[in-house]
Amino acid sequence: MPWLNGLARAEALIALLWVHVLRYVALQVFSAQHDGFPISDGGAMEIVVGDVAGAVIAFAAIALLRRRSRLAIPLMWLLAAETAYDTVANIHNGIQEHLMGAASGITWMILVFFVPMVVVSGVLLVWQLYARRNEELGSARERDMRTGGTPLRRAF
Predict the structure, then answer these.
(1) What residue ranges do the domains of the chain occupy?
(2) Mind listing the pLDDT tens digit of every residue in the chain (156 residues)?
(3) Cα 12 from Cα 22, distance rounded (Å)
(4) Would you call 52 helix, strand, or coil by DSSP?
(5) In whole angstroms, how far apart are CA 153 and each of 88, 111, 141?
(6) pLDDT computed for residue 48 by the predictor
(7) How far apart, in whole angstroms, are the C-alpha atoms of residue 73 and residue 47?
(8) For the whole model, what pTM was predicted?
């Protein structure tokens, strides 16, 4: 994505990580279960533990990136692995519990809109981690000063 490449490495990674910080939305599964979503207690707990863990890892990685700490890099690789495992495990459990057509309301919106955002941002995170592995974590301003270029306009 050209927009991500226009940002400093840390800023591009932080933009992708914010999607994962919002994964605490998985706590909604308890409310959905109470309102009739037919998920087992174990299945709900597995979803919540995986997504809340992902949210905590993402938030910690953002804090480390803001300090330009290289410790953020292995933490983001851990997040990528955790997200991949969590996604596959949740799909598997959803199939076993026959949940794929049972979602409605907010649960449906999370499954249709937010989960794909998490998956896409996870793929982009891995791409940024790998493709820009030799780049420093410095800010775009720092990068522009080193290269003598003019700052790139941000499209928000």
Answers:
(1) 2-144
(2) 678 888 899 999 999 999 999 999 999 999 999 999 999 999 999 999 999 999 999 999 999 999 999 999 999 999 999 999 999 999 999 999 999 889 899 999 999 999 999 999 999 999 999 999 999 887 555 555 545 555 545 544
(3) 17
(4) helix
(5) 38, 34, 11
(6) 97
(7) 25
(8) 0.85
Give the CA distances from residue 31 to residues 6, 27, 41, 104, in Å, rounded to whole numbers and listed in that order.
41, 8, 12, 12
Which tokens go with 128? 């940024």
Collapsing DSSP to helix, strand or coil, 46 comes out as helix
CA 58/CA 112 separation, integer angstroms: 22
What does 107-153 look like in DSSP terms, one character per residue? HHHIIIIIHHHHHHHHHHHHHHHHHTTTS----HHHHHHHHTPPPPP
Radius of gyration of the chain (CA): 18
| Chain-centre distance for alpha carbon 39 | 24
Q: Is residue 94 within a helix (H) or strand (E), and if so which, with residue range?
A: helix 72-96
154: its two tokens: 């941000």
Give the span between the Cα atoms of 5 and 15, in whole angstroms: 12
Task: Please identify which residue in the block is written with the tokens 């207690």.
Answer: 41
